[in-house]
Amino acid sequence: MPDSLGPDVNAPVTLDRREGPYGEVVLRGRGKDFEIIANGCFLMDTSDGRSERLLIDAALAALPADRPDPAVLIGGLGVGFSLVRAASEPRWGRITVVEREQAIVDWHLEGPLAQISGAALADPRTGILTRDLVAYLRTTTDRYDALCLDIDNGPDWTVTEDNTNLYSPAGLADCRERLTPGGVLAVWSAQPSADFEQALRNAGFIGVRTEEVRVARGVPDVVHLAVRAD
Hints:
The chain is α/β, with parallel strands linked by helices. It contains 7 helices and 11 strands.
């Protein structure tokens, strides 16, 4: 007998699956939303972008209001919410996105996620670097007024082992060196971390604080903020 309730329209549907240098990455559709899964671990979806937008808004608010055309580095393209938020703000100057997964870049350039980020990617201020963020921060000589980083589930819950280096003393030192004096480091996390706040202070940052976004269930999403002293 057929199921009288019909198919579950909210059941996940795999739209693309890729094997890359960092493992498997999958784009799924669930109803009207999209999900990104990395090595079997849920990363993010399009159901609620408040914290990804806060990552950008909080960083800009922490910069001096008279700083002209601040340059922002967005670490992790994800579903595109942070990039779209940055591109919607005329105050930002150069907008650089560092994303190590070519599949995610492709989904935005020519796949289903283009409907979210197409206009932001076409913005002349926007550039994408397909690089590992940790390696880029360690080797580049470019400097930014804000680093808005969202490459994982946070300092206490990393998806890939290499990402732990971002939150280490060496990784935070690299972040500090990439910032202009008075520049802002903003780090997204799926949960608050008092240990990470202390690590930021130990790395020489000032103005360390955490902004929360309440969620329906469980602990809040947060953005950790810190400032490079002049």
